[in-house]
Design goal:
The chain is of the alpha/beta class and 136 residues long. The protein has five helices and four strands; from the N terminus they run βαβαβαβαα. Helix 1 (16-29) packs across helix 4 and helix 4 packs antiparallel against helix 5.
């Protein structure tokens, strides 16, 4: 299964604990069987709040299986950090995409969809569609 090309998911939060918890939740809800690679990239080196280009780049490299990488973010400066990395062109794996989606619901949708073997466009669509989920 390690040879299977699955879209990788990176979850970027200002908090290492939030990123790790959302990753754990999304993987847990994806069910059994093959699960897409997921990596949290939260906080900054040393454990403080913020975002780290180095942690994001390392997380993206760790989940790259050749099918693309979907990056979901929590708040504004996380988006800016990912956009900067994408603009630099060589800091993230080829076919890395910043996905506009709610962080928790989008992460779950992305991991479930990627785990089914869907391509990057389908993973992005599923995560973005999470904006329409109604809670009441």
């Amino acid at each position: 299964m390690s040879d299977e090309k699955l879209v990788g998911i990176v979850l970027v939060s200002h908090s290492a604990a939030v990123a790790a918890s959302v990753a754990e939740l999304a993987v847990g809800l994806a069910g059994g069987g093959t699960t897409a690679p997921v990596a949290p990239a939260g906080g900054v080196e040393g454990g403080g709040l913020g975002t780290s280009a180095e942690l994001i780049s390392a997380a993206a490299a760790s989940v790259d299986r050749g099918a693309g990488v979907a990056v979901l973010t929590d708040l504004g400066s996380a988006v800016l950090t990912v956009k900067t990395l994408l603009a630099e062109g060589d800091e993230l794996p080829a076919h890395t995409r910043l996905v506009d989606a709610p962080f928790v619901e989008g992460a779950v949708a992305a991991v479930v969809t990627a785990s089914s073997g869907a391509d990057l466009a389908a993973v992005e669509a599923a995560a973005s569609e999470a904006y329409t989920y109604r809670k009441v």
